[in-house]
Specification:
4% strand; 2 domains; globular; two-stranded antiparallel sheet
Length: 524
């Protein structure tokens, strides 16, 4: 009881949650040839290759000695990765420290989630506990932020902390430089963090009219300075104003069709009834702070729709664009729920308290199951029964990298569709078939125009961000790599593979073949 009185229960929960994330991370690892490997999401492993090259004095590039291309969207996260490549850590273990960082940032985020609910209520216990628990065990957040090691963890913390600081500054009537510094840092973590930054800055200009001049003359210039520095550095180093991934994903495809696809995938991410419920809070409490939370959530959803959603919507739940604001959604949701529950409690007679409490438990359980059920594997992964979804792919790609290292020399050129794991663990020159690290392909038109489709689902399925541009006449016909792996889509690559390459379906066959040049490795 002393522990409870001292208010340490929350911090005990934070420590417990942190170790829970560590167990999830450990479950994502695997043993290959007697060595335990920790591997991030393939996109993050692209960043890891850039970081590894930078740490070894080869430049912030994908291919040492190759053309400078910014094939990542998370510059500050990539630079952070670089720090671990200076240390004597095996390549098989470096990813663990990025995952560990994600777990730590998500744990700290819970502190700010709790602080945010406390700011908006009189420390309503139900709202505080519910919001913290739902944030802690929302699987997409733990998956993107910790298991897969993406910058989602950093962006989530930054958005939540910035929201807390914004509300505090408005309540206290104080101008805060820190808000603008955090928002500026956010754009270095990922450039599209400009979206929540615009919402928060706009909110301060409208709501905090007494300090509007300070916001304009001091705050906004600080934020714009971060943007300017980022653009100048990119132009000086890569001779581009925008990342290569911008051209890859947001050009060469009709905007209307992209938005239509983004709208469709958004309708799949969560129960629409649950999304709509908390908006009734605006009828109960017209609070200027609630509008900020609502605006941030809507802005991220709108951005996700505008870019057409993510390339990994089959994961289920919120994607990488919406996940960072899901804690704010939970705040919004349980502010509404606590208002309704408080109203009901006032009308409950003492002899009906047991029924009230049972109803509360039922409400909490049903809501948790509805929000947390992403797919039929979600709870199996959360309970450590099933390994995380990417583990098998990562293990397979590590095996491919291992075999490629054995059968090729350092001068070999290897073409891949998966541009992260295999190149990171293989010291070779690589050709990116899907253009993430290739300026020429990134600026071409999308190969999927959806000219022929029978159902709306077929139409939407034509949009697969980051996987719709290829040019095999260029990559296979002109560049002529020595080895091609996982050419996607295979039907488009097959004419060139048939013309220039020998098909080998088994790694054992390849080992026994003297001619190791111009081979197509399929399903290693």
């Amino acid at each position: 009881m002393k522990i409870l009185k001292k208010g340490n229960l929350f911090y005990i929960f934070l420590v417990t949650y942190f170790f829970y994330l560590l167990l999830l991370i450990f479950r994502s690892s695997f043993i290959f040839h007697g060595t335990r490997y920790f591997v991030l999401f393939d996109d993050e492993m692209v960043s890891m290759r850039y970081a590894n090259n930078l740490a070894h004095g080869l430049g912030l590039v994908w291919n040492p000695g190759g053309i400078r291309v910014e094939g990542f969207t998370n510059p500050l996260w990539t630079l952070y990765m670089t720090l671990y490549h200076f240390l004597p850590i095996p390549l098989s273990k470096i990813s663990f420290f990025i995952q560990l960082t994600g777990a730590l940032l998500l744990s700290i985020n819970l502190y700010f989630v709790r602080k945010l609910v406390q700011l908006l209520t009189d420390n309503n216990k139900f709202a505080v506990i519910s919001t913290v628990l739902f944030t802690a065990f929302y699987f997409p957040l733990n998956n993107w932020g910790a298991i897969l090691g993406t910058e989602v963890s950093a962006l989530t913390l930054l958005i939540t902390a910035s929201t807390v600081l914004t509300i505090q500054s408005v309540k206290k009537g104080q101008f805060s430089y820190l808000i603008y510094i955090l928002l500026g840092i956010g754009t270095f973590i990922r450039m599209d963090a400009i979206v929540p930054a615009i919402v928060i800055i706009g909110y301060l200009l409208v709501v905090d009219s007494k300090r509007r001049k300070k916001q304009i003359y001091f705050g906004i210039p600080i934020f714009l300075l971060f943007i300017l520095i980022q653009f100048l550095l990119r132009h000086c180093y890569y001779n581009e104003w925008l990342p290569n991934t911008y051209y890859l994903k947001l050009t060469g495809y009709p905007v209307f069709r992209r938005i239509l696809s983004g709208t469709f995938v958004f309708t799949l991410f969560m129960n629409w009834f649950l999304i709509a419920i908390p908006f009734a809070l605006l009828l109960i409490k017209r609070n200027k702070y609630i509008f900020l939370i609502l605006a941030l959530f809507i802005a991220q959803v709108a951005y996700s729709i505008y870019v057409g959603g993510d390339g990994w919507e089959f994961y289920g739940g919120s994607n990488r664009y919406i996940t960072p604001v899901m804690p704010l959604y939970f705040v919004f949701y349980f502010l509404f729920a606590s208002s309704i529950i408080s109203s009901i409690k006032e009308r409950i007679r003492k002899d009906k308290l047991l029924i009230y409490r049972l109803g509360l438990i039922l409400f909490f359980s049903v809501t948790f199951l509805s929000i947390s059920y992403i797919n039929h594997f979600t709870f199996l992964e959360m309970l450590f029964i099933k390994k995380p979804i990417d583990s098998a792919d990562n293990e397979f790609h590590v095996m491919q990298a291992y075999e490629l290292t054995k059968i090729t020399n350092k001068n070999a050129k290897i073409a891949v569709s998966w541009a992260g794991v295999i190149p990171f663990f293989t010291e070779r020159y690589f050709i990116d078939l899907l253009g993430k690290n290739d300026k020429i392909i990134a600026r071409e038109y999308s190969k999927r125009a959806c000219l022929h489709w029978k159902t709306f689902n077929d139409y939407v399925a034509c949009f697969y961000p980051g996987h719709m541009k290829w040019d095999y006449s260029y990559t296979l016909g002109e560049l002529r790599p020595d080895v091609v792996i996982d050419a996607y889509p295979s039907d488009q690559a097959n004419p060139y593979l048939d013309k220039y390459y020998n098909h080998i379906d088994s790694i054992e066959v390849l080992k026994n073949t003297k001619n190791v040049n111009l081979k197509f490795l399929h399903n290693l």
